Amino acid sequence: MSKGEGAVDKDRKLQNFIRRAAVLVVALLFVLCCVGCDLHLNLPDFSGVGGTVTGVRLDAYSAKIRVGGQFKLSPEEPDSETFWNISDESVVSVENGVVTGLAEGKTVISTVLTTAEGREMVNCTVTVSAEVQGVKSSMTDATLTVGDEIVFYDGLPQGLNAEWSSSDEDVAAAESGIVTALSPGKAEITAVYGEYSASYTLTVVGEGELPDTPDPTERQLIWSDEFDGDTLDESKWSYQLGIRDVYVNDGRTIEGPRFWGNDELQYYTKDAVSLVEGVMSITAERKSGLPEERQFTSARIVTRDKGFWTYGYFEARMKLPAGTGMWPAFWLLPQPEKGMGTDNRYGGWPANGEIDIMEAKGRLLFESSGALHYGGGQDVFTSNTANHTAPITAWHTYALEWRSDHISWFVDDVEFLRVESSRWYTTSPLGNGNPSAPFDAPYYILINLAVGGMFDGGRAPDASFTSAAMQVDYVRVYA
After folding, report:
1. Rounded to whole angstroms, how far apart are CA atoms 197 and 211?
2. What is the Cα–Cα distance from 177 to 336, expressed in whole angstroms?
3. DSSP codes, 107-132
4. What pLDDT is recorded for position 119?
């Protein structure tokens, strides 16, 4: 820092000190004199707690804006002088009651409010999120039959929504991200937010006209992770930690079942993931002194909120761990919709579906399995076992072809399970008359190594177990 910058910094700190002192002095004068104007804080609707608030503490109230966004905190009498105190002036600024988001972070704005009991200091917590970087597509070009529906996500931050349009409304309708195929033809589906937009081409065909599974050489790669770095790419993946899923959707925190709903024995950590020479490893390790009396550490990574797709070809090249109690998995779950917790338009599990591309039991060295979960009140599933010519500890490619009329599972390019849409269903009313439901919505990828659990009858590693790892060469998604 230069001398000039230091002087400016000292002046700024002095101004901040004077401003904070002024707030306290004004508060004291208000209490002693009991004069002045009532103050109304007009909170924005971003956080769902908007409206005029008077005579109550604002500690529980908050506002959410983006970098560059603004909202107004204003006194009831506009001509009165109001002092605003900001806990972190790098996050927001306040001028004449107008709050402007400066940088990502959280800060508290304080002022004085008249209540039935007198004057008191009140707070408004402001969270500033990143600028909108653009609108992204949850899928590329797609083919549907007449009557099919898909859900298309715009990828915008929670609380923001794109405007949807179809280039040919006779072929397809688009509303709030729900696209309905109406008649044979092609239509461009577009999502627009401000200066940003994304689109894809939808082809609608008549009943029974869907083409066969395309040749792999004709597929278009739309997403991949080759694990070429030194650490996990957190622009593509997020870690799920501990003993349960904890997810924040539209300001609401949702906690999943303890021990991941399967009586699993591991405690998930970031340290269990490593990248070496283009291979990502998840290592399960016996450890003592873990929270919740867990006996092992491992890892679970997901593309939720960062990568999610409707239809396509998903594949990963993997080596799986051997040993009783090892439960590696490569699977898909529905991308949550805004304001719906971990649910989507079809509700929660299993009505909204689950696609297990690969699961294995470490004690069975020459087989893995795939499964499709659906139904509603109770879990209904279709599954099959793939027999391996080489053990699961060798490199194998596990893949899934997901289309509107069927889903197929492969190991090393050999299909071992196919489920037609006539077999699956959802009890959600939104699935009525839609043969593709619930598997016509965006899903995200999960990769994890569980220990113990119900998949293999509660079997746990024996006393001699120290560690074992699943290795992933790449994960790829094709249109």
Report:
1. 30
2. 13
3. EEEEEEEEETTEEEEEEEEEEEEPPP
4. 58
User: Which residues sit opposite 66 in a β-bridge?
Assistant: 129
Q: What is the pTM of this model?
A: 0.62
CA–CA distances in Å: residue 77 to residues 52, 82, 198, 379: 14, 10, 45, 60
Beta-bridge mates of residue 369: 359, 385
In this prediction, residue 207 has a pLDDT band, given cuts at 50, 70 and 90, of low
Answer yes or no: are the C-beta atoms of 467 and 451 closer than 8 Å.
Answer: no
316 CB-near residues (< 8 Å, 6+ apart) = 330, 357, 358, 397, 398, 399, 447, 472, 473, 474, 475, 476
Q: Which are the catalytic amino acids? A: 354, 359
Query: Which residue, chain included where needed, has tokens 């004069």?
Result: 35
C-alpha–C-alpha distance, residues 91 and 105, integer Å? 6
Which residues, 6 or more positions from 440, have their beta carbon under 8 angstroms from its beta carbon? 148, 149, 150, 151, 310, 404, 434
Exposure of 49 in the CB half-sphere (CA atoms within 13 A): 16
Domains present along the chain, CATH in parentheses: 3-129 (2.60.40), 142-205 (2.60.40.1080), 216-478 (2.60.120.200)
Are 122 and 41 in contact by the 8 Å Cβ rule? The answer is yes
Query: By CB neighbour count within 10 A (0-12 exposed, 13-18 middle, 19+ buried), where does 443 fall?
Result: buried
Query: Across residues 263-280, what is the average pLDDT?
Result: 97
200-210: average pLDDT: 71
Structure tokens at 192: 């627009």
Q: Where are the beta strands (DSSP E) in 76-226?
A: 85-86, 92-95, 98-101, 105-115, 118-129, 142-145, 149-151, 163-166, 172-175, 178-181, 185-193, 196-205, 221-225
List of residues 6+ apart from 215 with CB closer than 8 A: none
pLDDT tier at 44, thresholds 50, 70, 90:
very low
* Spatial separation of the C-alpha atoms in residues 379 and 373, rounded to whole Å: 7
Collapse the DSSP code of 455 into the 3-class scheme (helix H, G, I; strand E, B; otherwise coil) and give the result: helix
What is the pLDDT at residue 315? 98
Helix (H) or strand (E) holding 32: helix 3-33
